[in-house]
Amino acid sequence: MANIVISTHWGDGDVIPFISIGKYLKKQGHDVTIFTHCCYEERIKKEHINFVSWDTWDEYKDFYNDLAKCSYSVTEMDETEKFRAKYENVDVRIKEYELLKPYCKREDTILIAKNRSSIAALLVAEKLKLPLIWVYMNPYEYESIKTFDGLNKGTLCKEVNELRSRINLDPIESWLSWQCSPKKKVGLWPRWYRSNILNEQEDMDLVGFPLEPLDRRENSVIPSVLKNILLEKPAPIIISGGSSNKIIKDFYRIAIKACTDVDRSVIVATRFKELLPDTIPSNVHVFDYIPLYESLAYASLIIHHGGIGTISNAINTGVPHLILANCCDTPLNGSMIKKMGLGDYFPPLRCNEENVRKSINKLLTKCYKEKCSEFANAHKGENTFENIRKIVEDAVENEEYLVNYENMISTHKNIDYNTSNKNSNVKLSNNMKKYLLEKIKIEKNLK
């Protein structure tokens, strides 16, 4: 059995899938250690998995508050640069590298890490010549790192080479190539969940959504107060903006007011009470947290922000989506769900009470629920965790899982990301170019 070391950062959507993966691998007899933020300690240790924190509670609170201020706009980079200067600088990366490295001394060590944020894992894998499984959370992430590289060309490579010099690694010529250097890349979504808007990496294994089977008879994780509401007829609506407050302005106000006159209870899950309207209708019940995946097994509809974790939960439980999306991968997820006929999607400029109310009435019809249930049943049994187990066990002493140094200095090195250069070799699809232009227009209109 192998020594599995898992590294990830950010919020629930970037951490919970790795906990599920670690739990499964632990049951297969592997030794598992997860490196992530301190707030996940209790959840990870509950699964009898070794846990190491990147931060203290005070550091994590600062991180989370600063992340909330960070703009995802392609037209404004100041907040992002301030965030990177504080949380992604060379000293922080060295600290994480030194923290991770002692847990990787066993010859049978295999690293599993989230792409882009897990710099320490990428460095340790190269330095110690260990197998690395580089994980992408959603189909937009590869396009995202290409855009990020284009916006920061020169700066990123300089930063990385300063970091590499600190641990006696040779310099690289392309940050994007360095990010793509792991030979084994895994995408945590199924093959059928894809869009022709995006360019995809041909060498990526798509293993499926990392979700465990649900058994309504054993939902002990649902508190009794919440369970009583979930068991009501007609089935309730759930409203969730995810684990952060990076959502459409007035997300909760619009969603709650649109649900005022529905003939059923509404469950709102958010820690950000300041985002709620001053008056809460009598049919609306607010919780700081709900076990979303388990709760969706009882719901009639979910109104959400479009995060890939919520998307996968709702698809697997056969619940229609109403997506109010505004940044990162969420608009893409919204458009894909609408195209598949599993729900509706509104970008910021179309997100208003009237549109949301009309959509709710449409999505609560019997035909939508039946279509979502049929889709869920047709796509069960994807064996995501077994797919990951096979990849992990194949990685032991396998050179095909090492970091590809040649790729760092050859692939992409001649790409010109200056969009004003007509001879630029950036290969964005026409649909992606259209999508980015529309996003810029929306952001300018919202100022």
Automatic annotation (TrEMBL):
Range of residues in the leader sequence: none
Limits of the Erythromycin biosynthesis protein CIII-like C-terminal domain: 256-387
Residue span(s) of domain Glycosyltransferase family 28 N-terminal: 13-128
InterPro entries the record matches: EryCIII-like_C, Glycosyltransferase_28, GlycoTrans_28_N, UDP_glucos_trans
Gene Ontology MF term list: hexosyltransferase activity; UDP-glycosyltransferase activity
Keyword vocabulary terms for this entry: Transferase
Keyword Transferase applies: yes
Protein name per its UniProtKB record: UDP:flavonoid glycosyltransferase YjiC, YdhE family
Organism, scientific name: Clostridium cavendishii DSM 21758
